[in-house]
Write a structure and sequence with these properties.
It comes from Saccharothrix variisporea. This is Integral membrane protein. Keywords: Membrane, Transmembrane, Transmembrane helix. The structure is a single chain. The protein is built from five helices and no strands. With about 130 residues, the chain is mostly helical. It has one domain. The longest helix has 29 residues.
Length: about 130
């Protein structure tokens, strides 16, 4: 199967999990705000927002990926790099929410940075592919 047929389905189904996260966040804010705390609320919001925006970005990415004229294998590599990057970037915020302390780094901050690098690499690769296809 073509990566641009499968990977957008993964993105769309992942958006459903972001919707559930929004519901959970709303529930925490309206009922258990003291339990969540300011730091956790901030990182919950950041992880949730990044996941939603980046998954929508991935849908656009998969529309342009075939135009770069990459082989199917290269499309799989960059498409998966993008999705893993989205998961790592947003997931790192949730990991920091769980493990982090105010004003200190945690494994979550490292995971978030790795995710950002993967997303950047996938976007640059697509841009280069689109330029070469002109």
């Amino acid at each position: 199967m073509e990566p641009t047929a499968i990977l957008p389905i993964v993105s769309l189904l992942s958006i459903v999990t972001v919707e559930f996260g929004g519901h959970a966040l709303l529930r925490f804010i309206t009922t258990d705000r003291e339990t969540l705390g300011e730091l956790r609320e901030r990182f919950f919001r950041a992880g949730h927002a990044h996941a939603g925006v980046l998954l929508v970005l991935s849908l656009v990415y998969f529309l342009y990926l075939p135009r770069a004229e990459f082989s199917a294998g290269v499309q799989w590599v960059w498409g998966l790099a993008l999705l893993v990057g989205v998961l790592a970037q947003s997931g790192g915020f949730f990991l920091h929410l769980w493990l982090g302390k105010p004003g200190a780094k945690s494994p979550g901050t490292a995971v978030t940075r790795v995710g950002a690098l993967l997303i950047a690499a996938a976007l640059v690769a697509l841009a280069v592919g689109l330029i070469q296809a002109l």
